């Protein structure tokens, strides 16, 4: 999971990894999140760095702290993350898509048609 | 609590000679795992020996557990310095050395020592002076780990170890540190191997400390700009660049991370990507003597 090419700071990678665990349902609402020591062992990193990743999620109120018990997934953590990914990731992808379309001279109608076609293809593929 | 304190420390090996450490000031908190990082010959080992009380300062003051470490029983009893000059009696077998270490170190973890000893396939009746360089350092590292000293110092512990042993050693160090938190100093030339293990970095350059703090702060100080050469060049003239690499029409430039949100957006629109860098790149930028990278040496040679 440590990618050298992107080289995102490791604590951000830790936060994103936990986010994905929450989005895909591995961790559900009010479930206990891994401690900084578990994360440190698992990813071979300093516990303070792992703690920084957890702090990121605490600040965004995706997880919450229960004194002496550890960190837990916020009841609306899943929704928050979905909204955030829509806002950040999806919008980013759409922006890239529009830039590329402009470069290639593909207009909006063509673009929508292409999206429709792609959806049909993948729809057939899964059914 | 503060474990180590340097107040205006200067060290030169001969009076009047150039000083290895120059008016150095820093303090290290208890139970932090700190990497002591720097290029060859900047004074890392001197700094570590001063902390362990093996040598004396020329001027200034070193405090370890609130005491001057030189000639301090308290510091000696609570500190271990592991490096490749550790010497043991040539009359003792490795097994006997471990037994003596058990007698000597108050917190000695005999079970851990035995398990590491077996894992790294040492022969109980072998003698330290007959071990290979890598094996010697592996044995020294076992002593360093199992001693569980409140202040544990590893000076280039992995010299001569093969890749597999190095990885195993660092993993053992991390696991033991999680189980028994203590103040640890670790030096290595391979920052990329240890950066994830560290909480703080103490960067040494020309006998001074240009950076001391969380490794994540060091990473955040620099970014790489990647994009079409002419576009990137237009931006970096205003900022000092710390090395660049050209790949076809694309260029990667390492710069200080001082971009505002607006600037970042503008860079993105121009097709320039801002990429975070590993601590190692930031370290190279902070410790390289002159601006530019190795490529520039060859570029100027052709234009002269």
Describe, in plain words, how this protein is organized in 3D:
The complex is a heterodimer of chains A (127) and B (304). With 127 residues, chain A is mainly alpha-helical. Chain A is built from five helices and two strands. Chain A has two domains: 10-75, Arc Repressor Mutant, subunit A, CATH 1.10.10.10; 78-126. Helices cover 65% and strands 6% of the residues of chain A. Chain A has a two-stranded antiparallel sheet. In chain A, helix 1 (10-23) crosses helix 3 (47-59) and helix 2 (36-43) packs across helix 3 (47-59). Chain B is α/β, with parallel strands linked by helices and 304 residues long. Chain B folds into two domains: 2-214, P-loop containing nucleotide triphosphate hydrolases (Rossmann fold); 221-303, no CATH class. Chain B contains twelve helices and 13 strands. In chain B, the strands form three sheets. Chain B has a six-stranded mixed β-sheet with strand order 5-6-7-3-8-9, sandwiched between helices. Chain A: Keywords: DNA-binding, Transcription, Transcription regulation. Chain A: Residues 8-76 form the HTH gntR-type domain. Chain A: It comes from Filibacter tadaridae. Chain A: InterPro entries: Tscrpt_reg_HTH_GntR, WH-like_DNA-bd_sf, WH_DNA-bd_sf.
């Amino acid at each position: 999971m440590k990618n050298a090419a992107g080289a995102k700071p490791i604590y951000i990678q830790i936060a994103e990894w936990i986010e994905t665990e929450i989005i895909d349902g591995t961790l559900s609402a009010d479930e206990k999140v891994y401690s900084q020591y578990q994360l440190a062992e698992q990813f071979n990193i300093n516990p303070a760095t792992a703690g920084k990743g957890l702090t990121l999620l605490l600040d965004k109120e995706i997880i919450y702290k229960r004194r002496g018990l550890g960190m837990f997934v916020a009841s609306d953590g899943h929704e928050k993350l979905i909204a955030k990914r829509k806002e950040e990731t999806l919008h980013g992808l759409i922006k890239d898509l529009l830039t590329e379309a402009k470069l290639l001279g593909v207009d909006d109608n063509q673009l929508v048609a292409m999206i429709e076609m792609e959806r049909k293809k993948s729809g057939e593929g899964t059914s | 609590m503060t474990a180590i304190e340097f107040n205006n420390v200067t060290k030169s090996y001969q009076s009047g000679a150039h000083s290895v450490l120059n008016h150095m000031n820093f303090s290290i908190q208890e139970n932090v795992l700190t990497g002591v990082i720097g290029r060859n010959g900047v004074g890392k080992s001197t700094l570590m020996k001063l902390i362990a009380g093996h040598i004396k300062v020329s001027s200034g003051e070193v405090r370890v557990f609130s005491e001057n470490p030189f000639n301090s029983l308290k510091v000696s009893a609570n500190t271990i310095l592991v490096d490749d000059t550790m010497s043991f009696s040539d009359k003792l077998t490795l097994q006997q050395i471990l037994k003596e270490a058990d007698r000597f170190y108050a917190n000695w973890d005999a079970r851990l020592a035995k398990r590491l000893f077996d894992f790294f396939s040492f022969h109980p009746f072998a003698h330290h002076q007959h071990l290979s360089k890598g094996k010697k350092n592996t044995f020294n590292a076992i002593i360093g780990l199992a001693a569980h000293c409140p202040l544990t110092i590893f000076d280039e512990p992995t010299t001569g170890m093969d890749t597999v042993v190095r990885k195993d050693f660092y993993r053992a160090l991390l696991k033991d540190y999680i189980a028994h938190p203590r103040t640890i100093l670790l030096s290595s030339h391979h920052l990329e191997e240890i950066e994830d293990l560290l909480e703080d970095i103490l960067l040494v350059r020309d006998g001074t400390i240009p950076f001391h703090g969380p490794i994540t702060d060091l990473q955040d100080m620099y970014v790489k700009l990647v994009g079409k050469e002419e576009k990137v060049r237009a931006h970096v003239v205003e900022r000092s660049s710390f090395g660049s690499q050209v790949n076809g029409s694309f260029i990667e430039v390492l710069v200080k991370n001082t971009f505002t949100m607006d600037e970042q957006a503008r860079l993105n629109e121009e097709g320039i990507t801002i990429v975070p860098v590993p601590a190692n790149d930031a370290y190279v930028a902070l410790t390289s003597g002159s601006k530019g990278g190795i490529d520039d040496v060859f570029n100027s040679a052709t234009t002269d």
